[in-house]
Amino acid sequence: MQASTESTPTAGHSGTIFVAIELSQRSWLA
């Protein structure tokens, strides 16, 4: 990963995608 200061928007977007994937996996398992 690179500097958090420079990739602040990217990190936020990645976090949102990560959460979405986790929720999808949980739904799949459920």
Q: Mind explaining what this structure looks like?
A:
There is one protein chain. With 30 residues, the protein is mostly helical. Helix content is 73%, strand content 0%. It contains 1 helix and no strands. The longest helix has 22 residues, at 8-29. The radius of gyration is 12 Å and the shape is rod-shaped. The mean pLDDT is 71.
Classify the secondary structure makeup into a structural class: mainly alpha
Helix percentage:
over 70%
**Number of DSSP helical runs:** 1
Range of strand content: under 5%
Average predicted confidence as pLDDT: 71
Largest sheet: none
Report the count of strand segments.
0
Low-confidence stretches: none
The succession of helices and strands, N to C, reads H
* Backbone CA Rg: 12 Å
Shape: rod-shaped
Q: How many angstroms does the end-to-end distance come to?
A: 32 Å
* Assembly context of the chains: single chain
Sum this structure up briefly.
This protein is mostly helical.
Helix-strand blueprint:
Layout: H1 8-29
Give short descriptive properties of this protein.
30 residues, mainly alpha
